[in-house]
Amino acid sequence: MSAIKNSILAEPHSYPAAAVGVSVLDRIGNTPLLRLSRVGREFPEVEFYAKAEWFNPGGSVKDRPALNMILEGERSGQLRPGKIILDSTSGNTGIAYAMIAAAKGYHVELCLPASATVERKRILAAYGAELVLTPGDEGSDGAIRRVREIYAADPDKYFYPDQYSNAANWRAHYQTTALEIWEQTRGRLTHFVAGLGTSGTFVGVTRRLKELNPAIRCISLQPDSAFHGLEGWKHMATAIAPKIYDPSLADDDLPVRTEDAYKMVKRLAREEGLLVSPSGAAALAGSFQVAKALPRGQRAILVTLFADSGDKYLSERFWEED
Amino acid sequence: MAVKVIIPTPLRPYANRQESVEFDARTVGEALAGLTTEYEELRKHLYTDDGKIRSFVNVYLNDEDIRYLQKENTQIKDGDTISIVPSIAGGSAAPAAGR
Would the ipTM clear 0.90, i.e. be above it? Predict the structure, then answer.
């Protein structure tokens, strides 16, 4: 695979020719595709690759859909100067909205459970987002209910992207992530594996990859139970299914246990030098399930995606345990 | 001591759909043992096979994470509330509003 590596080194990202320096928004996307050469050695026939999405300036894959939803809002006229971007999120999408809005001069108002960590609240506040805290014991549902009330009371004041229902979410991946994977592997990938949250990543990448080569196997991953520790992932059978989710796209759908993800977080850090989030590690744990199910001797080039780094998860208890 | 255990939404199907259950217990561990004895199906969601609370399950006595108290040996006072909160709201999630 040295050809791919060399090509990345030889062709740095292209920036707008007229610009001296670039905007932080220009650095969204075009993330590295990392070869995982050590952690997957029990599967010698399989090459594992992961999109390192924490290379996005907001630190996660969510920069892509957040930017596309905001651009689409501007194109459609729903988002105009003076309008406030409003949504509910305690996670990476909120950070992406807050960063992009700051760079474009919009105000952002986010509903989030009071139980979100201090670090997250401070990141959001640092970008100038206004935070509406909802009761912690109501979780993300409480935040969703509150955002709907606020929007219903004054819809002209706000732009409410609603990442679960907005086609610009999955289209961000259809237009960028999927093509990057295709080019970075020179179209050689045989499998794409990704976890489901809003489902935007899996739906958008799968739709485009299947157009480019219908033989690519696309496998979605979910937490093994409604009660889990994989931030950003959804157990679809028990959750309110996102409107953009299309279960028929997946060739297979596999469950991942939170503890397996935690083990993989530690392995990736110690064996590959990659400190990824539990959901990122879960994507690799699921990829190993896919590899394990392959017929003996079948070669495969498997691509998955690490949504964010482990930085925001260092206070979790699994670090203190075996 | 009478203690109220608040069941998180995803686990309510395994506890007769109740939001909370009251127990008589002296420690947090006793209250959780009472809960998982009465509702057997909850056990595999809350504990590992070797009987430890799963790593992503945070248990609070009132507003305090029991890992910063005496863990499962934390003593209970009459009228206390125990909350079980998965860590997916981002790290150490406190159950009460305004934290």
Answer: no
Domain-embedded: residue B16: yes
Report the predicted TM-score, pTM, of the whole model to 2 decimal places: 0.89
Contact of B51 with chain A, judged by CB distance below 8 Å, is answered with no
A137 to B96: CB separation less than 8 angstroms, yes or no: yes
pLDDT at B93: 35
Return residues 218-237 of A near B (CB < 8 Å): 225-231, 235
Predicted confidence at residue A6, as pLDDT, reads: 40
Q: For the domain that residue B17 is a member of, what is the CATH number? A: 3.10.20.30
Give all domains of chain A, ordered by start, each with its CATH number: 2-60+170-320 (3.40.50.1100), 63-159 (3.40.50.1100)
B34 falls within a domain: yes
**Nearest Cα residue in chain B from A140:** B89
Q: Which parts of chain A register pLDDT below 50?
A: 1-12
In terms of residue numbers, what domain contains B80? 2-89
In 3D, which of A103, A110, A197, A93 has the Cα closest to residue A151?
A110
A258/B contact by beta carbon, under 8 A: yes
Who wins on pLDDT, B22 or A240? B22
Per-residue confidence (pLDDT) for residue A115, from 0 to 100:
73
Say which amino acid occupies B81. T
- Minimal Cα distance from A260: which residue of B? B55
The backbone region for A255, taken as left when phi is positive above 0, alpha when psi lies in -120 to 50, beta otherwise, is beta
The token pair that represents B63 in the structure block: 């507003």
Residue B99 in any domain: the answer is no
How far, in Å, CA of A106 to CA of A103, rounded? Answer: 8
Residues of A in contact with B86 (CB under 8 A): 227-229
Asked if B67 is an interface residue toward chain A (Cβ–Cβ < 8 A), one would say yes
Q: What share of chain A is helix, strand, coil (3-state, %, to 5)?
A: 45, 20, 35
B46 lies in some domain: yes
Single out the catalytic residue among A279, A287, A309, A312.
A279
Tell me, what DSSP letter sits at residue A269?
I
- Split into its structural domains, chain B has a count of 1
> Hey, is B10 helix, strand or coil?
helix
Q: Are β-strands A300-306 and A46-52 bridged in parallel, bridged antiparallel, or unpaired?
A: parallel
Cross-chain Cβ contact B11/A313 below 8 Å: no
Q: What is the pLDDT of residue B70?
A: 92
